[in-house]
Every structure is written in structure tokens, then in C-alpha cells.
Automatic annotation (TrEMBL):
Pfam families associated with the record: MipA (PF06629)
Name under which the protein is recorded: Outer membrane scaffolding protein for murein synthesis (MipA/OmpV family)
Record-linked PANTHER family: MLTA-INTERACTING PROTEIN-RELATED (PTHR38776:SF1)
Family note: Belongs to the MipA/OmpV family.
Compartments, as annotated in UniProt: Cell outer membrane
Biological source species: Methylobacterium persicinum
Keywords: Cell outer membrane, Membrane, Signal
Signal sequence segment: 1-30
Length: 289
């Protein structure tokens, strides 16, 4: 049995929040894991089936302040991964959402997932966001599937539904090519995100009232959301206890949402970047009970 808890924090009070995702599964860990092809530090010399492996992690990254924003904010969040000794660790990309695996095999995995979306608030940019309604932080629970057509390629798809902040339907399709080299693991792959009209209007729409109050933009009603990009990561396993991952990503907002005045300067930018670092520390412990 494995348990994964990730907590997202570090945002300002208006646009921040905390997310705790608890993933429990049998036979494999739902997040922060490696595929069999990934390099793994030498095994611990002593193996006790009643012992747990615990990985504590800390991540810091720069992300757009809200979807379509031109400026950035730095967020940090801790994580914990608990699994029985000897259980394999699957690969998890730094931008994977929090997951709960209900089925796991050698080349297929499926379960539940949830994503957190930062909100857009007047206080983020009082000059340019004057007159626009706030787009609250959002949570998107849904389902995911992962397929490994070959050990070096991971395909992941998600379908999610907004339940707070927005009530649209969104999806993500991602692919990662994995290249292990000694203690290093290199990964790179494309990212595609889609959303319906409800999601697009929340973050990229401009109502007639908002346009009139702001005085510098025209009303706009996007019928969909679409973005495409790329994510790359490099992990170095210093020892059986310590590993370090650096990652960077780029995404461009396209289609109807990409033509919104809210992603034109000075209001926003269709080019969205992420950059981050994660540090993992692994140790062994006996259960308390």
C-alpha cells in the first residue's frame, strides 16, 4: 500500500490556497514515481517487508499568476510519498496533477485526479483589471489514464470537471519520452489542454458591462479554450536518499481564448512559462502500529 500527500501553498491570500491530495493504492504509488526504465539508486542493503519507504519532497516554481497572466508568482509546496519497501516507483512528470490510482499494471494505470487553478483577482493588477470580475481559484476533479506503449514512452490523458471557481469541462493530453543515463533521468514531451466555453468565458471572456466599466477593451465571448506546449525535466539521483529535479515548460494559448483581449498586453500574455526545482529525500521507517 502506498500513500501520497502533496500540499500546494505559497500563493498570496487572494489567489492562493492549499491543496492536499491523498492517493492510496496497492502495488504501486500513484505519484512521484518512476517507470521500470528509469534509473533507480542502489537498493537498501536490508529489506524488511514490514518497513516503509518515505520520500519527503519540496518543490518551488515560478508560474503565471493566473491563466493568461503576463506576470509571475513563486509558489512552493511540500510532498510526502509513503510506500512499502520494495514497491516499484513509477515516473511522474513535475506537472502531473494529484492522482488516486485504482488500477495499475505494468503498462496501464487509471484512477482519479484533481487540479488546482490559480484565480485572477482585481488586486493582482489594479490598473489593468479595473472593472473585470474576479475569476476565483478553481478545483477540477476528474479521471486519468496512463499507457506505456514501450517502457521509454508514457502517454497520459485526463478529463476534469470544475466544481469551484468555474463549472466547465477541461482535458489534458501529455506524452513523455524517458531517457535514463546512469544516475540521470531526462524526460521531455508535448502538452495539450482543452476546455469548453464555460471554462473559456471564466478566464478569457469580457462581458459588455466589464468592457464598459474598464473602457479600454471590447466585449468578447470565447467559445473554447486550447493551448499547446512542451515540458522538459532532468532528475539526478545523488544517492539512495537524495534526488534533485529541475524542470521547465512552455505553453501558448491558442484559438478563441488566444484572441481574447485579456491575453494581449498589457492585460496578459498568450505565452506561458514555468520553471522549478524539486528536492526529494528518502528514508526507511517501521510503522508506528
Amino acid at each position: 500500500m502506498g500513500i501520497v500527500v502533496n500540499v500546494l501553498s505559497g500563493l498570496r491570500p487572494a489567489a492562493g490556497g492549499m491543496l492536499v491530495a491523498l492517493a492510496v493504492q496497492g502495488g504501486a504509488v500513484a505519484a512521484d514515481a518512476e517507470v521500470p526504465a528509469a534509473p533507480r539508486p542502489p537498493a537498501f542493503t536490508y529489506v524488511d517487508p514490514n518497513t516503509w519507504e518515505v520520500t519527503l519532497s519540496g518543490t518551488i516554481q515560478a508560474i503565471p499568476r493566473y491563466p493568461g497572466a503576463a506576470d509571475y508568482t513563486v509558489v512552493g509546496y511540500p510532498g510526502i510519498d509513503i510506500r512499502r519497501v520494495g514497491e516499484p516507483r513509477r515516473f511522474s512528470a513535475p506537472d502531473d496533477n494529484f492522482s488516486f490510482t485504482v488500477y495499475d499494471s505494468d503498462n496501464f494505470r487509471a484512477g482519479a485526479t484533481v487540479r488546482y487553478v490559480p484565480g485572477r483577482y482585481y488586486g493582482d493588477d489594479r490598473r489593468h483589471l479595473f472593472g473585470f470580475r474576479d475569476a476565483r481559484i478553481a478545483f477540477e476533479p476528474g479521471l486519468f489514464v496512463e499507457v506505456y506503449p514501450v517502457p521509454a514512452v508514457r502517454l497520459r490523458g485526463e478529463i476534469r470537471q470544475g466544481v469551484y471557481g468555474h463549472h466547465g469541462t477541461v482535458g489534458t493530453v501529455a506524452a513523455d519520452y524517458l531517457l535514463p543515463v546512469d544516475r540521470w533521468l531526462f524526460s521531455v514531451g508535448p502538452r495539450f489542454n482543452i476546455g469548453d466555453a464555460s471554462f473559456a468565458r471564466t478566464y478569457f471572456g469580457v462581458s459588455p458591462v466589464e468592457a464598459a466599466i474598464n473602457g479600454h477593451v471590447m466585449p468578447y465571448n470565447p467559445g473554447s479554450f486550447y493551448s499547446a506546449g512542451l515540458l522538459a525535466a532532468v532528475t539526478y539521483h545523488q544517492s539512495e536518499a537524495w534526488s534533485y529535479t529541475t524542470f521547465g515548460g512552455y505553453s501558448r494559448i491558442l484559438g478563441a481564448s488566444g484572441e481574447s483581449p485579456l491575453v494581449d498586453r498589457p492585460y496578459g500574455n498568450p505565452n506561458q512559462f514555468t520553471l522549478g526545482l524539486r528536492i526529494d529525500y528518502t528514508f526507511r521507517t517501521k510503522p508506528l502500529l
